[in-house]
Amino acid sequence: MGLSTHVLDTMHGTPAAGMRVSLYTTEGEAAKLVKQFVLNQDGRNPDGLLFDHQELKQGTYRLLFEVAAYFAARGVLLPQPNFLDRVSLDFGVAQPQQHYHVPLLVSPWSYSTYRGS
After folding, report:
1. Where residue 20 sits, what CATH number does that domain have?
2. pTM assigned to the model
3. What's the domain range around 85?
4. CB-based contacts of 99, cutoff 8 Å, min separation 6
5. In angstroms, what is the C-alpha Rg of the chain?
6. Cβ(8)–Cβ(107) under 8 Å?
7. What is the enclosing helix (H) or strand (E) of 101?
């Protein structure tokens, strides 16, 4: 139980190891930074859950993924300006006793997400 994320690089068919991610709590347009981390070799937070079941609260959150910087570091030649610079996912947690998994499937030109388990 808690909050987790996982990023897959669909261009290379690999986890997005090395991508920088920021987690925020949000209230309306205001956002408060909770933590920043760099994804491990599996494309996940190296510290495990972003919030465990005791820390996760009902409310709204934002995950910000540094997509262009990740692909540039992988040697992908990107046009300037980049089509995708950062991907921002705003989501709500209605039932914090459940697990919320927020995966991102991403390339330099597209992304997809869903609520996983």
Report:
1. 2.60.40.180
2. 0.96
3. 2-108
4. 1, 2, 3, 4, 53, 117
5. 14
6. no
7. strand 99-106
Residue 105 has pLDDT above 90, yes or no: yes
Higher-pLDDT residue of 66, 117: 66
Question: CA 55 from chain center: how many Å?
Answer: 18
The sheet with strand 87-93 has its strands ordered as 30-38, 20-27, 59-65, 87-93
Number of C-beta neighbours around residue 98 at 10 A: 13
Residue 98 belongs to a domain: yes
Q: Report if residue 67 sits inside a domain.
A: yes
CB-based burial label for 100 (10 Å; 0-12, 13-18, 19+): buried
Cis? peptide before 81, omega within 30° of 0 = yes
| Contact indicator for 113, 89 with CB cutoff of 8 Å | yes
